[in-house]
Amino acid sequence: MSETYDFLFKFLVIGSAGTGKSCLLHQFIENKFKQDSNHTIGVEFGSRVVNVGGKTVKLQIWDTAGQERFRSVTRSYYRGAAGALLVYDITSRETYNALTNWLTDARTLASPNIVIILCGNKKDLDADREVTFLEASRFAQENELMFLETSALTGENVEEAFLKCARTILNKIESGELDPERMGSGIQYGDASLRQLRQPRGSAAQGKQPCNC
Amino acid sequence: MMERAMEQLNVQLNRLTRSLRRARTVELPEDNETAVYTLMPMVMADQHRSVSELLMNSKFDVNYAFGRVKRSLLHIAANCGSVECLVLLLKRGANPNYQDISGCTPLHLAARNGQKKCMGKLLEYNADVNICNNEGLTAIHWLAVNGRTELLHDLVQHVMNVDVEDAMGQTALHVACQNGHKTTVLCLLESGADINRPNVSGATPLYFACSHGQRDTAQILLQRGAKYLPDKNGVTPLDLCVQGGYGETCEILIQHHSRLFQTLIQMTQNDDIKENMLRQVLEHVSQQSDSNYQRILTSLGEVATTNGHKLLSLSSNFEAQMKSLLRIVRIFCHVFRLGPSSPNNGNDMGYNGNKTPRSQVFKPLELLWHSLDEWLVLISTELEKSRGDVTTSSGSEIASLLLKQREVDPSAPEANSLSTTVLAPTLDPEVAMKTSEAYASSEDVISMTANRLSAVIQAFYMCCSCQMPQGMTSPRFIEFVCRHDEVLKCFVTRNPKIIFNHFHFLLECPELMSRFMHIIKAQPFKDRSEWFYEHLLAGQPDTDMVHRPVNENDILLIHRESIFRSSCEVVSKSTNEKLKQGIAVRFHGEEGMGQGVVREWFDILSNEIINPDYALFTQSADGTTFQPNSNSSVNPDHLNYFRFAGQILGLALYHRQLVNIYFTRSFYKHILGIPVNYQDVSSIDPEYAKNLQWILDNDISDLGLELTFSVETDVFGAMEEVPLKPGGTCIQVTQENKAEYVQLVTELRMTRAIQPQINAFLQGFHTFIPPSLIQLFDEYELELLLSGMPEIDVMDWKRNTEYTSGYDLQEPVIQWFWEVVESLTQEERVLLLQFVTGSSRVPHGGFAFLMGGSGLQKFTIAAVPYSSNLLPTSSTCINMLKLPEYPSKEILRDRLLVALHCGSYGYTMA
Questions:
Q1: What pLDDT shows up at residue B515?
Q2: What is the DSSP letter of B708?
Q3: Residues B341-354: pLDDT tens digits?
Q4: CA-CA distance, B366 to A142, in Å (whole number)?
Q5: Which of B246, B340, B351, B228 is nearest to B295 (CA)?
Q6: CB proximity B708 to A under 8 Å
Q7: Which parts of the chain are coiled coil (chain A) (predicted)?
Q8: Is pLDDT larger for residue A164 or for residue B259?
């Protein structure tokens, strides 16, 4: 039987080559660090059902290649994304400097309501750090992004990054700011009616109680 | 004493008269078993007076159970509705709750058969309505199964628990829903039946209604707030509706649970669901309103786009994603073609009633086509780059490593998603480092994405075509193929299977086909013929046609003595569609039918077609092959017969029946639309062909041939001057234009002379075999398809072979040669024969009758000095194989096979 969920969100993972986008996705889905990782060719796909604020949400995640040569291919996946992880490498200023370009792409090509979270990856390599937490968080603030430093190696903040993004989208739906029915919103209803009926009262408690952050 | 005897006699006499008068016994036998069979027919006929009379003075036990099922007479009365007898029996103390072997009481039987009065009386005599039979069924179950609402209404008041369950946990409501008895369902609900009661496997009344597509019942349940619940295995009512293809019931479900719409759409991704059922449901729902139509297509488009994007992710499962994408797109196209429901714009391809473009529904898919386009552009850039790489040799180390990798693993292009993961561990660490540092090589990107992109192209084609009238290719798609011509050619050159798996559009679009023809023609015959049949029979319900049982009216009734004419008649009477579906033949006055008779019919008929009496076909010079007779017009109806001949050949090919005719090489070319050349002339006039060859081989400038572009022909005894081209009689043939002359004169001899016949033949042939499909083959293969693989007797071949220029039978090379021939497959032997003699067939009578350019010419093997990589060559006009003196059998075999597979078709002047 097909899995059931309340909502489906389409997510993007974008950022320069070698920042660890695929490793973040792998860590999020498999709870493991991906050892011998190759450059992504085109766009990879992963999905996971998570519980956010008492709702089951299926995240459909499109992990894009960072290399310049794939740029036009990956751009064609932007449309209809509800959320995005914008990733840079804290040990590489070059990847940080490229953020503006990535951001412009996301804001122009994806839905205008797209929720973006900035991820400073490779937090575990603090010794080689080239981008400070402070400047990155200032950048995030200026551009109305959420911000986290993550480590795909240790798994630190990986789950949080995805969940935070999902939670924000969910809040926007509940506040009416986002309309899931609108085409290209990157959001779909699952067959939640079925799920609720199948587990009558009580069993919903297994998920966390609504948290309105 | 006497008196007593008299009295007894009187009693007996009395009894006898009574018995005779009533035509039955008047006294019950002593034992119950015999008595009960006396009574049973009377009870069944409700002859209550007789029964009463018989029972009067008897000791019969009214509760006596008899027969295999151990029923009492009360059961019988209740079952048959014999209400008077029933009352009589009850009065005499029959037990109203007596249960037979299966646990049924008389009330059960009365309820099952709807015996209203009997039920009433049984209840009067305190029959228990709550008794279950062995399966747990009660009287209300029986009433509910058969929808006896009125009776149920009466009975239900006496019932303790309207939700009484049978052994499977089924209530009366379950069974009423399953059988779709609307009023019964309402009655049960009004009597307080539990609308959501699950049976032992968790199936609810709604579940039962859906499992049998009981639309109205489902409607009632949903209106009364029935919950939408799956069973214990997670099977939902919607699943059941889709499995059964119950569109109307699905529609009701969606009306009440709007989220189920998305679920229904998502089901298109589920491989376990039957596509045709799901399609049927979606088609129905789409027809309910214009908004449904739009919504279904838009949603399907979104699902297809997501699927397509997943397919383009290299780590996804290629097979599963591809099948899923193509299934969704197929359903999409079907629903789209059906059009919106409003009848006034049903034929309007562009706009629906609201003036919203119907093409709007394609919008979500545009994302996928956009990605496809970008991917192909990327590949094209990569191709250019890899060309650059070769010259600068930068990164060629890695490229060659990758190439080697691919050679080791022949499945790589198929399972290309594996190649990256396989790659890393097998390389030594240093190189692996470099690989991951460097770009994934261009080669790699192409080989890994080719299959996936091709499948998306196939989907794109389907979507483009469903907006076009049948049989037309969309300009957008043509433009697309032209734009990406280079990349697509690169794909199919690297992996020709792509053509057969995904590029079906080529078969429907000759303009595009021509671009790929050279690649397709280079593919194995087997692949092409499979593709051919797959497409030829596409849309036919069953591919194994000839065995299909056929309607009596569709049997072709043939008169053996006039097989040609009667076949022509019945075939022209039948429709092409019927003939495509299947053929059954019966000879007049004979019983036989089936495959054998069909084969015999084709066999005899094909012999008749070339029967010289009809003057339709003439023999070629060597007497084994045929071509249309240029003088066939002696038969005034000849063109109709040619069309018929074409139909028969087409029909045979369509149904994979072999015919017993071999045509000349040039006629096969005519069927294929391939231009003939001067060598084809040799099949009808070998001497003349040699002369043409001579003109071409020698300088004719100073010979004074005085030839013009015209010929004299003999038309029924009168000589006529026929120009080869306008004004040809005045144009001299020179060294410069002799090639044109030879071609024109060849066309005159081979084509123009029989053009009307060819055209008529093709008209018939094309009714079954589209020209776009047959062009997949060359003339040799067409012969193989039509007439089959000839048997080749190697012993006979060896016996009739001559050796020259140093070879003899004792030579090791010759020994090896025959050993190799023995080991070849039948197909390869045919290729060898074709390679050397130009014909795939052994002449009638065997190799001893092999014909050369001028009379009998045995198969000959000539020695050629060996040099490395030298391949065998042949001279077909003298049936000579020029076999280099190979140093070993292995090399001989290898080189011979290379020559056969590359060189058996097409002539090179070696």
A1: 86
A2: B
A3: 654 444 444 444 44
A4: 34
A5: B340
A6: no
A7: none
A8: A164
Q: Which helix (H) or strand (E) holds B283?
A: helix B275-286
For range B740-753, the mean pLDDT: 86
The percent of residues above 70 in pLDDT, for chain B, comes to: 87
- pLDDT for B784 beyond 90: no
Residue B853: predicted pLDDT: 61
Instruction: Using an 8 Å CB-CB cutoff, list chain B residues near A183.
Output: 298, 363-364
Kindly report, residue by residue over A7-48, the tens digit of the pLDDT: 889 999 999 999 999 999 999 999 999 887 888 999 999 999
Q: In this complex, is the C-beta atom of B658 within 8 Å of any C-beta atom belonging to chain A?
A: no
- The domain of A94 spans 14-193
Interface confidence: ipTM more than 0.95: no
Chain-centroid distance, C-alpha A181: 21
Parallel, antiparallel or unpaired: strands A83-89 and A7-15: parallel
Q: Are strands B855-856 and B859-864 parallel, antiparallel or unpaired?
A: unpaired
The answer to whether A194 and B230 have CB atoms below 8 angstroms apart is yes
Domain boundaries, chain B: 258-340+357-382+443-523, 548-788, 790-904
Query: Are residues B556 and B585 in contact, defined by beta-carbon separation less than 8 angstroms?
Result: yes
Chain B residues touching A194 at Cβ < 8 A: 228, 230, 236, 259-260, 263
Rounded CA gap, A57 and B664, in Å? 70
Rounded Cα distance between B301 and B354, Å, is: 21
Q: Could you tell me if residue A206 is inside a domain?
A: no
Q: Is B877 a catalytic residue?
A: yes
Distance CA B38, CA B59 (A): 14
Which tops the pLDDT comparison, B782 or B660?
Answer: B782
Under CATH, what is the fold of the domain B790-904? Answer: Hect, E3 ligase catalytic fold (3.30.2410)
In A, which residues are within 8 Å of B388 by CB distance? none
Q: Is A204 on the interface with B (CB under 8 A)?
A: no
Closest CB to B439: pick one of A39, A44, A45: A39
CATH of B548-788, one of 3.90.1750.10, 3.30.70.3270, 3.40.50.300, 3.40.50.2300: 3.90.1750.10
Type of residue numbered B502: H
Return d(Cα B203, Cα A174) in angstroms, integer. Answer: 35
CB A73 within 8 A of CB A99: no
Helices (H), B339-441: 363-392, 396-408, 416-426, 429-437
pLDDT digits (tens, 9 = 90+) for B181-232: 999 999 999 999 999 999 999 999 999 999 999 999 999 999 999 999 999 9
Give pLDDT, residue B710.
86
- Confidence bin at A202 (pLDDT 50/70/90): very low
pTM score, whole prediction: 0.75
Q: How far apart are the C-alpha atoms of B348 and B340, rounded to whole Å?
A: 10
Q: Which helix (DSSP H) or strand (DSSP E) does residue B452 occupy?
A: helix B442-465
CA atoms of B35 and B801, how far apart (whole Å): 97
The count of structural domains within chain A is: 1
Alpha helices (H) in A37-186, listed in sequence order: 71-75, 93-97, 99-109, 133-142, 158-174
